[in-house]
Write a structure and sequence with these properties.
Helix content: under 10%
Radius of gyration: 18 Å
Distance between the termini: 21 Å
Strand content: 35-45%
Shape: globular
Number of strands: 21
Order of helices and strands: EHEEEEEEEEEEEEEEEEEEHEE
């Protein structure tokens, strides 16, 4: 696919988008909802992120997995042939081990190789670099189209520079602060499906849930020394193919001072999801009248890589009586909600969606 890059003004996005967002709460005093362009929580402490010019809130979730690890002997039990720890990794850390498959992230832990992994193998097309607050890039991975949005939507946004190649993108720099209701300053995102802008990549989504045999996805990211107030989150939009009706979110990173939308569900803390690595704390609630369910890795237990079937989370929510309306999966997105800068070289390394 020949990838293109399109730049849009905020006004055009307002007219053509349903709106990107990550629905997140804040430990800071917040309001009970945002204005147009931001989501809103029904609780006094809630705050949300909006996207580029629409009133729908989205969500932020975080998925499990394990830390980026070092392949090889000096990374503990890292498996040969992979430069990072996999979702099954349990080995000890170590400073940038070089045994086995190459140098790993010094912040990660070693891990056994995942022979079924699709991460790190994709052919990326479509590259660009922008400091525009709102820019849309049409990209592809293995010939399948995706869309990237820089999305510096928050009221506290100051500036950023984002570069990308295929579904890999880097927040080279970002400055800004949380809004008065705890809104993130930005939410750079790459997605498959009908999400928050006019572009709908022909990636297999939206699709009726009943027709999906599997909806495999994987994401690898690297914090590159960034320890601040940002998450790393899957944002899964449920609906009828055109209308957004609810959110499932999976957080791979939970920052210290900001939280998911809704409230922690006391009955579902430290839970596991069938066929998905890791343990999760579930938060659920409402955003702008739409239900949201978040699976969140424990604070300080960042997960840098994961692969799973989205339908396992759909089924998990149903089993717990927390399902959201919508008979289709509208979109699957990943990105970073950033509440505070500076951020330097925060990277989404690889992302894919396979609809079967």
């Amino acid at each position: 696919m020949q990838a293109l890059t399109l730049t849009k003004s905020f006004a055009r996005l307002t007219l053509t988008a349903t709106l990107v967002a990550g629905c997140s709460g804040s430990s800071d005093p917040g309001g009970d909802g945002g204005a147009t362009g931001s989501g809103g929580l029904p609780t006094a402490s809630g705050s949300t992120s909006g996207g580029a010019g629409s009133g729908d809130g989205s969500t932020t979730g975080g998925t499990g997995g394990t830390s980026v690890g070092t392949g090889g002997a000096s990374g503990g039990t890292g498996g040969a042939g992979s430069s990072v720890g996999t979702t099954a990794g349990t080995g000890g850390g170590g400073a940038a081990g070089t045994g086995g498959g190459g140098a790993g992230d010094s912040t990660g832990t070693g891990g056994t190789a995942n022979p079924g992994s699709e991460l790190g193998t994709g052919a990326m097309e479509g590259s660009g670099r922008s400091s525009e607050r709102y820019e849309t890039g049409l990209v592809s991975r293995d010939g399948r189209p995706y869309v990237l949005i820089t999305n510096g939507w928050g009221p506290g946004f100051d500036s950023h520079t984002v570069s990308w190649e295929g579904t890999s993108f880097t927040v080279e720099s970002m400055s800004g602060s949380a809004g008065s209701m705890g809104q993130p300053a930005s939410y750079p995102t790459v997605f498959c499906g009908r999400y928050s802008v006019r572009e709908v990549p022909d990636c297999g989504l939206p699709a009726p849930s009943a027709s999906i045999t599997s909806l495999r996805t994987g994401w690898r990211w690297a914090k590159n020394g960034n320890e601040g107030q940002y998450n790393a989150a899957y944002d899964i939009w449920m609906g009828n193919g055109t209308q957004l009706q609810g959110y499932l979110m999976v957080w791979l990173r939970d920052p210290t001072r900001f939280q998911p939308a809704g409230q922690p569900n006391a009955a579902h803390q430290g839970v596991t999801v069938a066929n998905v690595p890791g343990t999760w704390n579930i938060w659920n609630g409402m955003v702008n009248g739409l239900p949201i369910v978040n699976w969140v890795r424990a604070e300080g237990n960042d997960s840098y890589e994961i692969e799973f079937d989205v339908m396992d989370f759909v089924r998990d929510a149903q089993t717990r009586g927390l399902s959201v309306p919508g008979n289709q999966v509208n979109a699957v997105a990943v990105g970073f909600e950033i509440w505070e800068g500076p951020i330097t070289n925060l990277k989404s390394v690889d992302f894919y969606v396979d609809v079967n």
